[in-house]
Recover the amino acids of this structure.
Protein backbone atom coordinates (compact mmCIF):
# COMPACT_ATOMS: atom_id res chain seq x y z
CA UNK A 1 0.00 0.00 0.00
CA UNK A 2 1.03 3.63 -0.43
CA UNK A 3 1.20 4.19 3.32
CA UNK A 4 3.91 1.54 3.81
CA UNK A 5 5.88 2.65 0.76
CA UNK A 6 6.15 6.13 2.24
CA UNK A 7 7.54 4.68 5.48
CA UNK A 8 10.19 2.64 3.68
CA UNK A 9 13.61 4.20 4.37
CA UNK A 10 15.49 5.69 1.46
CA UNK A 11 19.15 4.99 0.82
CA UNK A 12 20.92 7.94 2.34
CA UNK A 13 24.39 6.57 1.62
CA UNK A 14 26.66 5.79 -1.28
CA UNK A 15 30.26 4.61 -1.63
CA UNK A 16 33.40 6.54 -2.51
CA UNK A 17 36.41 4.87 -4.13
CA UNK A 18 39.53 7.06 -4.26
CA UNK A 19 42.99 6.55 -5.69
CA UNK A 20 46.04 8.68 -6.34
CA UNK A 21 49.26 8.15 -8.27
CA UNK A 22 51.49 8.16 -6.36
CA UNK A 23 49.79 7.55 -2.99
CA UNK A 24 48.12 10.33 -1.00
CA UNK A 25 46.35 10.83 2.32
CA UNK A 26 42.62 11.51 1.91
CA UNK A 27 40.35 13.88 3.82
CA UNK A 28 36.59 14.05 3.24
CA UNK A 29 35.00 17.25 4.52
CA UNK A 30 38.20 17.88 6.53
CA UNK A 31 38.03 14.47 8.27
CA UNK A 32 41.02 12.13 7.77
CA UNK A 33 39.98 8.88 6.03
CA UNK A 34 43.33 7.17 5.32
CA UNK A 35 45.78 6.56 2.49
CA UNK A 36 44.98 5.62 -1.10
CA UNK A 37 43.80 3.32 -2.51
CA UNK A 38 40.74 3.68 -0.31
CA UNK A 39 37.05 2.73 -0.39
CA UNK A 40 34.62 4.44 1.97
CA UNK A 41 31.59 2.15 2.22
CA UNK A 42 29.12 4.55 3.85
CA UNK A 43 29.23 8.19 2.87
CA UNK A 44 26.17 10.43 3.07
CA UNK A 45 24.40 11.36 -0.14
CA UNK A 46 25.10 14.90 -1.34
CA UNK A 47 28.09 17.14 -2.03
CA UNK A 48 31.43 16.60 -0.32
CA UNK A 49 34.93 18.06 -0.51
CA UNK A 50 37.76 15.56 -0.94
CA UNK A 51 41.34 16.69 -0.29
CA UNK A 52 44.44 14.73 -1.28
CA UNK A 53 47.69 15.46 0.58
CA UNK A 54 51.18 14.22 -0.15
CA UNK A 55 54.44 15.36 1.52
CA UNK A 56 56.31 17.93 -0.58
CA UNK A 57 53.31 18.78 -2.77
CA UNK A 58 50.42 21.23 -2.66
CA UNK A 59 47.12 19.61 -1.60
CA UNK A 60 44.58 18.84 -4.31
CA UNK A 61 40.91 19.51 -3.52
CA UNK A 62 37.95 18.22 -5.53
CA UNK A 63 34.16 18.48 -5.08
CA UNK A 64 32.03 15.39 -5.56
CA UNK A 65 28.37 14.43 -5.54
CA UNK A 66 27.47 11.14 -3.83
CA UNK A 67 24.34 9.42 -5.14
CA UNK A 68 22.24 6.92 -3.17
CA UNK A 69 23.38 3.31 -3.51
CA UNK A 70 26.06 4.13 -6.11
CA UNK A 71 29.87 4.04 -6.13
CA UNK A 72 31.54 7.35 -6.96
CA UNK A 73 35.12 7.01 -8.23
CA UNK A 74 37.64 9.80 -7.81
CA UNK A 75 41.35 9.92 -8.56
CA UNK A 76 44.42 12.10 -8.89
CA UNK A 77 47.04 11.52 -11.59
CA UNK A 78 50.76 12.22 -11.33
CA UNK A 79 50.58 15.29 -13.59
CA UNK A 80 48.07 16.99 -11.25
CA UNK A 81 50.55 17.24 -8.34
CA UNK A 82 52.48 20.52 -8.03
CA UNK A 83 55.65 20.48 -5.93
CA UNK A 84 55.97 22.92 -3.04
CA UNK A 85 58.87 25.33 -3.18
CA UNK A 86 61.65 24.51 -0.66
Amino acid sequence: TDFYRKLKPTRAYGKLAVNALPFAHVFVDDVSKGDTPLVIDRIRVGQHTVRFERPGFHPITKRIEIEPGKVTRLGVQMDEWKAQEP
Notes: The chain has a mean pLDDT of 91. The helical segments are 2-7. Residues 47 and 65 are 4 Å apart (CA to CA). The longest strand covers residues 13-20.
